[in-house]
Structure formats: structure tokens, C-alpha cells
UniProtKB/TrEMBL annotation:
<dbReference type="InterPro" id="IPR050223">
    <property type="entry name" value="D-isomer_2-hydroxyacid_DH"/>
</dbReference>
<feature type="domain" description="D-isomer specific 2-hydroxyacid dehydrogenase NAD-binding">
    <location>
        <begin position="112"/>
        <end position="289"/>
    </location>
</feature>
<dbReference type="InterPro" id="IPR029753">
    <property type="entry name" value="D-isomer_DH_CS"/>
</dbReference>
<dbReference type="GO" id="GO:0005829">
    <property type="term" value="C:cytosol"/>
</dbReference>
<protein>
    <submittedName>
        <fullName>2-hydroxyacid dehydrogenase</fullName>
        <ecNumber>1.1.1.-</ecNumber>
    </submittedName>
</protein>
<dbReference type="InterPro" id="IPR036291">
    <property type="entry name" value="NAD(P)-bd_dom_sf"/>
</dbReference>
<keyword id="KW-0560">Oxidoreductase</keyword>
<dbReference type="GO" id="GO:0030267">
    <property type="term" value="F:glyoxylate reductase (NADPH) activity"/>
</dbReference>
<dbReference type="GO" id="GO:0051287">
    <property type="term" value="F:NAD binding"/>
</dbReference>
<dbReference type="GO" id="GO:0016618">
    <property type="term" value="F:hydroxypyruvate reductase [NAD(P)H] activity"/>
</dbReference>
<dbReference type="Pfam" id="PF00389">
    <property type="entry name" value="2-Hacid_dh"/>
</dbReference>
<dbReference type="InterPro" id="IPR006140">
    <property type="entry name" value="D-isomer_DH_NAD-bd"/>
</dbReference>
<dbReference type="Pfam" id="PF02826">
    <property type="entry name" value="2-Hacid_dh_C"/>
</dbReference>
<dbReference type="InterPro" id="IPR006139">
    <property type="entry name" value="D-isomer_2_OHA_DH_cat_dom"/>
</dbReference>
<comment type="similarity">
    <text>Belongs to the D-isomer specific 2-hydroxyacid dehydrogenase family.</text>
</comment>
<feature type="domain" description="D-isomer specific 2-hydroxyacid dehydrogenase catalytic">
    <location>
        <begin position="6"/>
        <end position="321"/>
    </location>
</feature>
Length: 322
């Protein structure tokens, strides 16, 4: 029997590829970087399955190009806004993702960003490297205390909860906004309380975003919301860029509407507002929320297993089709 054909859009950790190789014929894109849109239709042709990244837009056109054999699209990410799931469902194509395995790693990064922006770590690093360190100074790089502050979490799913769990050691007050509040037991265990978005914006010293990108959450944080935030507060985003109106954020940071921001994700990745890059009160990292050796390996294994179970005709554990 001929083995199913799988196209993998970019090199992922070997552990995942080994699993696929056991029962599939795999081709991994050898393009150095995100596979260009112009090459995608030819590459996906006649595939039974695709293993794709959040940087690949998988829409109707790509599904048509893949052809009638296509049974599964396995996303190497928990967020799957890059895939037209409605179209895939219409065509009987299963779509899967990698939840859970990257929760703690992403929560770690949200905290790393929060601490970096509050204590001006990147500015300090730049100053030292520029040879401007003159010794201890009473007024050098004063930052904001994290302990005993109020942390507001927008979105209280797996990652939001993992961020809250880390707050205990800092004695933070944690409030969250989610359209589906967690049970009173979880709230008690994590010492958090649910508030509406306006209250969260007005009361928080640090706001960290943990909702998926959907039509509903697109530009959830715009000028109006930024204006509601405290002047001394910070915004952290490790979810998806378009949840925040980037132009409005730049203006708020420039005008001192909020004190700072720390961002792992951007509205039009990899492009970033030039003005954002010029600001000192923002920490910018290149979408590395899940980027630890261990987590990326776990994601590769999970994405491969999802794909294989779909090809076997089973229901993959992490299916996202409704
Ligand atoms: C995800 O899985 O959605 C993350 O953004 C990957 O780092």
C-alpha cells in the first residue's frame, strides 16, 4: 500500500518528523523561511495531510490546490486563526492544534516580559553595552514595583490561569476578564476574581492578554480601552498581535497614556510599526512564547500524532473543527 503523502511547511524538531516517517512519505519545505504563498499550491498538491505553522495562511485556495485527498491539516500551534476552519469543515478536512504543551512556557514568557518592562531590563542592558554605566546612581532607570500590584488578565483559559498561578509569589492582586468565567472553586484556588473589561482596564497596573484571535477579539484593545488604563500601567501581549490596535498603542505609548508595553506578537508580523521600534518604553521580542527546546519538541510530537490519528480515520485528540 502506498504511504500517505504529507507536506511539512517548515523544519520542525526531529522527534515529530520521526513519528511521521514511520507511516508516511514526508516532504519538508527546504525554503529558508516561511514558504512563499506562490510556492504553496504546488507544494501541497496531492497531499493527504499538511503540517503547517501559524505563519502559513491555509485558506480555500490552498485546500483546493492540495486536492481531494487532503484529510487533515495539523497546526503546529495552539492558535489556529491562520486556518479557515469553516472551509476545512465544509470539505471534510480535519484541523488540529497543540494545546496544553505550551501553556507553562508561554506563561513564563508573559512574566519575563512583565518583569523586563517594569524593571527596565532592556534599557539597562543597552545602557551598559553602550559604555554609559557610570556606577550606581540614585536616579538611574527607576522602574515600577511588581509586588503588591494589580495584575489584570484578559482571557482566563489555560495560559491566563498559568500566569495567575505565578503571581502568588509576588503577592499580586489578580483580576481577570473572560466571557466564560471559571468556577468559584478555581477562582478561590487561584485567588482571582472576575470583573468586566472596563473595570479590569481601570484597576490594573499590569494587563496581560490571553484570548485567542477571533472576529470578536480583533482590536479588543483600541484607543478607547487604552484611555481607560492607568497612566502608570503596562500592557503585555503574548497572544496574537491583532487583538491590540497597534497604531493606537503607539500613540498611547508616545503620549504617555500608559507607561509601557511588552510585546511578543504584532499586528502584521513580521512587519512592526517603525514608531514602535523607536520607543524606549516598549520591550519587543519576536513571537517566542512557546520557544523552549522542550516545548517545541512536545509540539512537534503532538502535531505529528494528531496528523497520524486523523489519517488512520480516528478522531484526533486535539481536533478544532466544531
Ligand atoms: C501558538 O501556539 O499559538 C503560539 O503562538 C506559538 O508560539
Amino acid at each position: 500500500m502506498t504511504k500517505p503523502r504529507i507536506f511539512v511547511t517548515r523544519l520542525i524538531p526531529q522527534e515529530g518528523l520521526e513519528i511521521l516517517k514511520e507511516c508516511c512519505h514526508i516532504e519538508v519545505s527546504d525554503h529558508d523561511g516561511v514558504i512563499p504563498r506562490s510556492l504553496l499550491p504546488e507544494k501541497v498538491k496531492d497531499s493527504d495531510g499538511l503540517l503547517v505553522l501559524l505563519t502559513d495562511m491555509i485558506d480555500k485556495e490552498v485546500m483546493i490546490a492540495a486536492g481531494k485527498k487532503l484529510r487533515v491539516i495539523s497546526n503546529y500551534a495552539v492558535g489556529y486563526n491562520n486556518i479557515d476552519v469553516v472551509e476545512a469543515t465544509k470539505r471534510g478536512i480535519m484541523v488540529t492544534n497543540t494545546p496544553g504543551v505550551l501553556t507553562e512556557t508561554t506563561a513564563d514568557l508573559a512574566w519575563a516580559l512583565l518583569m523586563s518592562i517594569a524593571r527596565r531590563i532592556v534599557e539597562g542592558d543597552k545602557l551598559v553595552r553602550a559604555g554609559k554605566f557610570r556606577g550606581w546612581e540614585p536616579m538611574l532607570l527607576l522602574g515600577t514595583d511588581i509586588y503588591e500590584a494589580t495584575l489584570g488578565l484578559i482571557g482566563f483559559g489555560r495560559i491566563g490561569q498559568a500566569v495567575a498561578r505565578r503571581a502568588t509569589g509576588f503577592n499580586l492582586k489578580v483580576i481577570y476578564y473572560d466571557k466564560e468565567p471559571v468556577s468559584p472553586n478555581i477562582e478561590k484556588e487561584l485567588k482571582v476574581s472576575c470583573v468586566n473589561l472596563d473595570e479590569l482596564l481601570r484597576k490594573s497596573d499590569f494587563i496581560s492578554v490571553h484570548v485567542p484571535l477571533t472576529e470578536e477579539t480583533f482590536h479588543l484593545i483600541g484607543q478607547e480601552e487604552l484611555n481607560m488604563m492607568k497612566k502608570e500601567s503596562y500592557l503585555i501581549n503574548t497572544a496574537r498581535g491583532p487583538i491590540i490596535d497597534e497604531k493606537a498603542l503607539v500613540k498611547a505609548l508616545k503620549d504617555g497614556v500608559i507607561r509601557g508595553a511588552a510585546l511578543d506578537v504584532f499586528e502584521n508580523e513580521p512587519a512592526i510599526e517603525q514608531e514602535l521600534m523607536a520607543l524606549d518604553n516598549v520591550v519587543i521580542v519576536p513571537h517566542i512564547g512557546s520557544a523552549s527546546y522542550r516545548t517545541r519538541t512536545k509540539m512537534a510530537i503532538m502535531a505529528a500524532k494528531n496528523l497520524i490519528s486523523a489519517l488512520k480515520g480516528e478522531r484526533p485528540e486535539f481536533l478544532v473543527n466544531p
